[in-house]
Design brief:
Chain lengths: ~375, ~230
């Protein structure tokens, strides 16, 4: 029997855009495709749409499952569905794979029409602003003039913020979860170690590994292992793994001994099987470049001067990658502009990954906020 | 168990409606569903504060509880504002009530708020539960032109009588036992006025209430709840 709170079986759609896209870097993409999914019904006034923006390794498959793949649950399925905090009885929800991704939207592994080969290293660096631009075109395609809400966690929250700055008339509410107004030096440092792991893998071939029939698997695996450590908290790792040994005793060698080693290697392997290394490089770069205050001499309040949306900002106590302090910086800028904003700091031990977890209080807050969103 | 912030406790208990034993109060805090909003008529303390607030003003409500005062001020005075609240369940209630709430600990100050960014900062039945009394009053007058505080008058005759008979007072406005009270800085009208004088705080208006009646005769003896509107000493 199907779970009544699930959107059920979903099918991705795609749309091709042939109007050249001028990217922040100066590069131009003549055409591109975006793959997306939708859940719920768009109302007649087209006023109940919610855009869900994904984070570093996410994609358009936000909720539901694919036919005949019962394990293919969307990455935010606990948040979105009939009767869930983002209630698909009320809202029409869109998930989109960002440009440069590797789940169906045009990205480095896609065929470049000009060469007939995968873009590889030729795929331009994309920014959060560029993504928002492509998402606007998707909204146009779907006939949505103004989103009821745009939401996302982490890098997804950055896209939601960017929307409110660049297209203030097209978004009424922004849910910015476990995000930051810019990365810290430490954050960028983690990203660069991840990139270096990929770039220095001998199978990387300057980004053109597709034609060599290999993938920089070791590099991508290391990048993910490192990233994963930063998404968890010391406490949650201690609680889940502690110093547990797989075989109960030290082996005095370098094979997998501690459970945490086993877990991380498994996560790394799984990720390396399903994600494109070039896409990973692009996503981390988009994170690094995000800094709306930069164009305003570092003044974030000035950056948010353009915004008119209402905001819900949420952070998690154990998130050290995008700590509550980073969210407070966003709050200050929103308050300085007298925008409607609520802020909740959720007690959670799951680190940065908390935003993906099912937590009663967190979900109640989102539900309560969304209850007051008029469609 | 006592909630972290006494502020939250005092605000979700409509004191003159029904003094409640502490155990029930805790249950209220733990329950995550929205508390019913009392009809306006049952909250003369809200009306007293609203009478001082100019329409359309920018208001910051410290220790805003479930947000019902902000909601009342929004409906009655068309204010724009934010609440500050530490308690999870109350933050949720604020969202249910559709008011802006910033989850934060008042004891650590108001550094997230720009100087002079509000017309009024309200501290309603919260002052007596704060550790850093001087700090919060200073911060109120930094971020706002005017401050409004309300607090239970320890000098109320029923309180005095109970102390005279050898017990810590338990009353409509102080519905706690000595061992479970969040109230750590109780004062009388006289104490608060002396505090203001010593700390460069100029009192603009005072209102003393007993239930829904205003008290003019011997307020320090007959008043249950005191309201002050104040500004920085020029």
């Amino acid at each position: 029997m199907q779970d009544p709170t699930s959107v059920g079986i979903v099918t991705p759609q795609s749309v091709r855009f042939d109007v050249p896209l001028h990217l922040k870097s100066g590069a131009v993409l003549d055409s591109y495709e975006l793959v997306y999914e939708t859940y719920g019904e768009l109302n007649a006034a087209k006023s109940n749409a919610i855009l869900v923006c994904h984070a570093l390794s996410g994609n358009h498959h936000v909720a539901g499952v694919y036919a005949d793949q019962p394990k293919s649950l969307g990455w935010w399925d606990n948040m979105i569905g009939p009767g869930k905090p983002i209630d698909t009885h009320k809202f029409f929800v869109i998930g989109v794979n960002n440009l440069g991704g590797c789940h169906g939207s045009t990205g480095p592994a896609s065929i470049n029409a000009k060469t007939g080969k995968p873009y590889g290293a030729d795929f331009p660096v994309v920014t959060v602003e560029d993504w928002v631009e492509t998402q606007v075109r998707l909204a146009d395609h779907l006939g949505i003039d103004c989103f009821a809400a745009i939401m996302g966690g982490s890098l997804g929250g950055m896209q939601a913020m960017r929307w409110t700055l660049d297209f203030p008339t097209r978004v009424r509410h922004a849910l910015v979860i476990a995000a930051a107004a810019k990365l810290t030096a430490q954050n960028i440092a983690f990203n660069d170690v991840a990139r270096q792991a990929i770039i220095t893998d001998q199978d990387f071939h300057g980004g053109d590994y597709y034609s060599h029939g290999v993938v920089p698997r070791r590099g991508l695996r290391l990048a993910r292992m490192l990233g994963h450590i930063t998404y968890l908290s010391d406490d949650s790792m201690a609680a889940k793994f502690g110093r547990e040994l797989r075989n109960g005793a030290y082996g005095f060698g370098f094979d997998v001994e501690f459970e945490i080693e086993s877990y991380l290697r498994y996560q790394g392997d799984k990720f390396a099987d399903q994600f494109d290394a070039n896409s990973y490089l692009l996503m981390t770069k988009a994170l690094d470049y995000f800094d709306p205050a930069h164009e305003h001499n570092g003044d974030l309040s000035a950056a948010f001067h353009a915004a008119t949306a209402d905001f819900l900002v949420v952070s998690f106590t154990s998130d050290w990658r995008f700590s509550p302090e980073r969210s407070r910086t966003i709050i200050k800028a929103l308050l300085d502009n007298e925008l409607n904003v609520s802020y909740a700091e959720i007690t959670s031990s799951h680190g940065h990954d908390s935003f993906l977890m099912e937590d009663r209080h967190y979900h109640q807050l989102v539900r309560a906020y969304m209850d007051n969103v008029v469609t | 168990m006592i909630a972290v912030s006494g502020a939250t406790i005092t605000r979700i208990v409509p004191y003159f409606v029904r003094p409640m034993p502490a155990a029930n109060i805790d249950l209220m805090i733990m329950t995550a569903t929205a508390a019913p909003i009392p009809p306006i008529a049952s909250r003369p303390d809200f009306a007293a504060i609203a009478a001082w607030v100019q329409p359309g003003a920018r208001v910051l409500d410290l220790g805003c509880g479930d947000g019902s005062l902000l909601r009342y001020l929004r409906d009655a005075r068309n204010i724009r504002g934010y609440g500050v609240e530490i308690d999870d369940a109350n933050v949720l209630r604020c969202l249910n009530n559709g008011v802006n709430v910033i989850q934060s600990d008042l004891e650590s100050g108001l550094s997230g708020f720009e100087s002079g960014s509000f017309d009024y900062v309200i501290l309603s039945q919260t002052l007596q539960a704060m550790k850093h009394t001087e700090g919060i009053v200073r911060e109120m007058l930094r971020v706002s032109k005017e401050g409004i505080v309300s607090f239970p008058n320890f000098g109320y005759w029923k309180n005095r009588l109970q102390v005279m008979f050898g017990h810590m007072p338990v009353s409509e406005t102080l519905p706690y036992q000595w061992f479970d009270t969040p109230n750590i800085h109780l004062c009388t009208l006289g104490d608060f006025e002396a505090f203001c004088q010593q700390h460069g705080v100029h009192i603009l208006e005072r209102r003393v209430m007993n239930g829904d009646h205003q008290v003019t005769l011997s307020p320090n003896l007959l008043g249950m709840l005191a309201f002050y509107r104040f500004e920085r000493q020029q």
